[in-house]
Amino acid sequence: MSTPILFIKHQCSKSEQEMLRVLRAIHDRADPFPGIAPQLGHQGVSETDIIDLIEVFQALFRQFGRFDMLGPKSPCVSRDELDLLATLNYFARYRLQMNGVDYPEEFGPFYDLLQAGAALLERVGVAFRPRPMPETFAGFRL
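Predicted structure:
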């Protein structure tokens, strides 16, 4: 299990901090929609995008299995959360370049889910901070 390692305000942009709160709620709740819809709706995110975001990230968390997400109000960020942000940033930046490109079969659902998650976060306007790409992300070798 990862431990809280760094203060979130020093490691994450404002939009990343807001999105981490949403992702933490998606990770921790069976039905996160009532908890996150007002926050995202207030930011101009459509109900369809909210539902898509929940579905994609619930599937992503199921694929990864054990994944350390902290509480929604934690002032810290876990290594898993930073790795998730770095990976999503990578996929958001290279999403268009990677469309239609063959990738190793073992990437399968991880690749598709990361692509979808990155596209959704890009669409709702998350501004990622640059981070190095993690070598291994929750068992998914990139």
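Summary: Residues 4-141 form one domain.
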